Amino acid sequence: MKLDNIVKPSGKADLDFEVLEIMNSLVSSNENTQEEKDFFAENIAIKRVKKGVFLLKEGQFLKSSYHLYKGCIREFYLKDGEEKTVAFYTVGDSLSGDGNKLNQVPSDVSWECICECIISVFPFEVEKEMFQLFPRLESLCRMGIEKRYSNYKNAVNNYLSSSPGERYEHLIKTKPELFQLVPLYHIASYLGVKPESLSRIRGRLRSSPSAKPSIE
Amino acid sequence: MKLDNIVKPSGKADLDFEVLEIMNSLVSSNENTQEEKDFFAENIAIKRVKKGVFLLKEGQFLKSSYHLYKGCIREFYLKDGEEKTVAFYTVGDSLSGDGNKLNQVPSDVSWECICECIISVFPFEVEKEMFQLFPRLESLCRMGIEKRYSNYKNAVNNYLSSSPGERYEHLIKTKPELFQLVPLYHIASYLGVKPESLSRIRGRLRSSPSAKPSIE
DNA sequence: TTCACTTCTTAACCCAAGTCAAGGAGTTTG
DNA sequence: CAAACTCCTTGACTTGGGTTAAGAAGTGAA
Predict the structure, then answer these.
(1) Contact flag A101-B142 (C-beta cutoff 8 Å)
(2) Are the beta carbons of A142 and B147 separated by less than 8 Å?
(3) How do the pLDDT tens digits run along chain A, 216 residues long?
(4) What are the strands of the beta sheet with A110-113, ordered from one edge?
(5) Contact flag, residue A213 CB and nucleic strand C, below 7 A
(6) Whose C-alpha in A19, A50, A123, A152 is 20 to 30 A from the C-alpha of B121?
(7) pLDDT, tens only, B72-97
(8) Cβ-contact B32, B40 below 8 angstroms
(9) Is the separation of the CB atoms in B142 and A141 below 8 Å?
(10) How far apart are CA B163 and CA B205, in angstroms?
């Protein structure tokens, strides 16, 4: 298991126990054979990255998949000089650039760590090698992608059939921790409105708390 | 090759030459081995279906993938009793219920043929069998899904960062044939507005033809 | 302390989409 | 033929987001 580029938590000893724990959980899974786990231990790096780091910048070629063990990452792209936030990734989420692995095209999104994160790094070449060594895993990955694709479709449909206000209420219920991590103007962008509008939405909800548009 | 449920073009002889031609193209591809082509011939059905037929209804469990050789299919779901159109599929498109193959859940979208269509039908069990017989094809399918996922993401980003008017202009440029096949209120729904609004958008574009909002 | 900077809020005004209602054009049906 | 129906358009009004501008609250620096 590679441990390069580790940013040590300030004032701690040499060993990063948080990262070590994640490594251990990786190689002690009982969904994988010993060969598979050895392969992971050999080829997957766990890294601690600082707030503000970009795992991917617009125009770059993505070379690895990432998995988030801790922290929060914002995905955005530029449109008319403005950053449009399209996703927030938190613990347990994968960032895997689905689709642009072979026919490599420059990315049109960026991935920015909005706080210190712990991630695993899984290069595409290693993935390719893994699929050759363990065809069973390619099958699992295919199903995993199909599942993510399906979830994403549902998320898009929900997004499109709700108002910015409803999206706000849904987000604050399902991911309240985001509001501690991310400035509101990023959340506004994610909800599809300008910061001023999010302010008004919050104002409206404040004055009629959780009361749906009612006939007085 | 199965040819069940064929709707014969009216007044024609027993053989449906259009369908036969598609079958021939399927088994004469030179991207596939002879074994693979035999498997296709054995397991893929080509069907001609009438306008108005539903390939999938909300609540049903999808059991097959489809590929469109001719015609047009509308995908929609119900939201507050209203049909929200989310996609139009035309020649060359695949309808493959990505994601809901194994952990089967009832569909929340419907697929309606808006005109007579010619499709291929590929049951999931057959797909599963195919993956076991020809692992090479599972690899290709995985990459295909990744590509579609990626395209879909781009489409969503474009959708979200454009106005209904821009979406209309883009659609009429890229898929003008749709406007011959589909009533405008379905297109309105697809563009994310009510029919009345689409009328006004068309009116605006009529009075200032292809002139972007200009300072006079 | 003051100044600069970031983030969020508020107000005034404009514009586009939603809503409701009416009507026209083209079908199909009796 | 008229009646019914579908699809599209138009008008008047409401609503909510965009824009611009101003300012409040918090932070950090000189």
Answers:
(1) no
(2) no
(3) 544 444 444 444 456 787 888 778 777 777 889 999 999 999 999 999 988 899 999 999 999 999 999 889 999 999 888 899 999 999 999 998 765 565 578 998 999 998 889 999 999 999 999 999 998 998 888 888 888 888 899 899 999 999 999 999 999 999 999 999 899 999 999 999 999 999 999 999 987 765 444 322
(4) A54-56, A110-113, A73-79, A82-89
(5) no
(6) A152
(7) 999 999 988 899 999 999 999 999 87
(8) yes
(9) yes
(10) 13
Cα–Cα distance, B31 to B55 (Å, whole number) = 28
CB spacing of B138 vs A139 below 8 angstroms: yes
Q: How many other CB atoms sit within 10 Å of the CB of residue B131? A: 19
Measured between beta carbons, the chain A residues lying within 8 angstroms of B85 are none
Residues 6+ apart with CB under 8 A from B147: A99, A103
Longest dimension (CA), chain B: 67
**Radius of gyration of chain A, Cα coordinates, nearest whole angstrom:** 20
Q: C-alpha angle with apex B72: B70 to B76, nearest 5 degrees?
A: 150
**Alpha-carbon separation of residue A15 from A2, A12, A21, A174, B80 (angstroms):** 13, 8, 11, 35, 56
Helix ranges restricted to H, B33-134: 34-43, 124-133
* B160-to-A36, A78, B89, B153, B195 alpha-carbon distances in Å: 41, 13, 20, 11, 19
Length B11 CA → C24 C1' (Å): 38
Task: State whether the Cα torsion B151-B153-B155-B157 is positive or negative.
Answer: negative
- The H helix count followed by the E strand count for chain B is 8, 8
Task: Specify the residue for token string 């498997």.
Answer: B39
Whether A59 and A75 have beta carbons less than 8 Å apart is answered as: no
From CA A35, how far away is CA A106, in angstroms rounded? Answer: 34
Please count the residue pairs, one from chain A and one from chain B, whose beta carbons lie less than 8 angstroms apart: 81
Tokens coding B134: 């020809």
Lookup: nucleotide whose C1' is closest to B199 CA: D9
Provide CB contacts within 8 A for A34, sequence distance 6+.
none
Contact between B89 and B72 under an 8 Å Cβ cutoff? The reply is yes
DSSP label at residue A115: S
A131's CB contacts (< 8 A; 6+ apart) are A137, A138, A141, B139
Q: How far is CA A64 from CA A95, A103, A165, B199, B209, in A?
A: 9, 14, 36, 47, 46
Give the residue carrying structure tokens 């985001």. A178
**Residues in A 73-102 with any Cβ partner in B closer than 8 A:** 77, 79, 84, 86, 98-102
